[in-house]
Automatic annotation (TrEMBL):
Gene3D superfamilies: Tetratricopeptide repeat domain. It holds the Pfam family TPR_12. It comes from the Bacteria. This is Tetratricopeptide repeat protein.
Length: 346
């Protein structure tokens, strides 16, 4: 049995905030409470309020502000001698590093966060940090290395009845099954995640689960209209909660669904929108995936073959350098799709 979802990153004076609170509201209240704590000379409280500020900035795509905020939160926690708060700040910094495509830094910060969380006796930040490590490996495409960790974290979350963490783990495992072609298993896991998220009132998790369901319905069944309906429902949630990154990934998925349906002009428009959004928030993985979809759509719409070849070759080099294995394989498939021999990446 799962209780109502909660947001453990909203701490100190901000524990009354909901997991569904608008990020704009979180940022405003978090900043106000942070300033109050700083004026009162309470570094422990400043660290915990600063965490919410860092996370709001990160999820809104304010990369530089998020970077400054998590570091300030860490310094305040260190001044207060609060090991658990230091772990939460490092978790935020590691999550931001992954979002920016700095995977070695993400591994380092999240690993430190997990260690400090255990040392500080905070099982939640330890779990979130291990989950961050698992997600980093999954995004890089190293499924063999992190698949077991995902399953372990899912079991722990189920045992504690943590709806939000259970939903996250289910979605991560589902995504790996989807990417390796086990669409039925992926669909079942995304559906379970959507059901748990809805019952627990976790609107963010529900929006991500709907995106996963839409993807599988599109690629497995060709159910274009139903997939677009689910994405429209998720998009409304993303807009209401100011979930910038989730909204951009939603738009990219809309492009994927439209491309598979042969609606190339519409797909092009969705990819262009997503690309602009990802560039605004400096999210290189989303940017690369949107570039790939856009290149494929433009090729279908008659773009010069040499331009398509050059764009895909540049993307392959970019992804090879960044270590995104699954995305690199997607580029290779696109090159074969258009009769272009994948180049050896130098």
């Amino acid at each position: 049995m799962y209780g109502k979802a909660f947001a453990p990153e909203y701490q100190g004076a901000l524990t009354t905030l909901s997991v569904n609170s608008s990020l704009v509201d979180v940022l405003a209240e978090g900043t106000e409470r942070l300033r109050e704590a700083e004026r009162a000379g309470r570094p422990g409280e400043a660290a915990r309020c600063g965490l919410a500020v860092a996370e709001a900035h990160r999820r809104l795509g304010h990369v530089q502000d998020a970077d400054r905020a998590w570091k300030a939160s860490y310094r305040a926690a260190r001044d207060a001698g609060d090991t658990a708060a230091m772990a939460w700040a490092l978790w935020s910094g590691g999550t931001l590093a992954r979002q920016r495509g700095a995977f070695p830094l993400a591994w380092r910060l999240l690993g430190l966060a997990a260690e400090l969380g255990e040392r500080g006796g905070d099982v939640v930040v330890r779990g979130y940090s291990l989950a961050g490590l698992a997600e980093t490996g999954r995004i890089e495409g190293d499924y063999a290395a992190v698949g077991r960790l995902h399953e372990q974290l899912l079991a722990e979350a189920r045992k504690r009845g943590e709806a939000r963490h259970t939903v996250w783990a289910l979605e991560g495992i589902a995504q790996m099954h989807r990417n390796t072609g086990d669409y039925d298993r992926a669909y079942a896991l995304f559906a379970e995640a959507a059901e748990i998220a809805e019952r627990a009132d976790d609107r963010r998790g529900h929006a991500w689960a709907l995106r996963g369901l839409a993807d599988v319905l599109s690629v497995r069944d060709g159910a274009t209209e139903r997939a677009l309906e689910l994405l429209a429902e998720a998009e409304a949630t993303c807009r209401e909660m100011n979930l910038s990154s989730a909204l951009a990934y939603n738009h990219k998925m809309q492009g994927n669904v439209l491309y598979r349906a042969g609606r190339y002009a519409e797909a092009r428009d969705r990819y262009e929108l997503a690309l602009s959004e990802f560039r605004t928030m400096s999210e290189p993985r989303g940017e690369a995936l949107s570039r790939l979809g856009l290149a494929k759509s433009l090729a279908r719409l008659g773009r010069d073959r040499a331009e398509t070849a050059a764009e895909l070759a540049d993307l392959a080099r970019t992804l090879e350098r960044s270590g995104l294995r699954h995305a690199r394989e997607m580029v290779a498939r696109a090159q074969r799709e258009f009769g272009l021999e994948p180049e050896a990446v130098r």
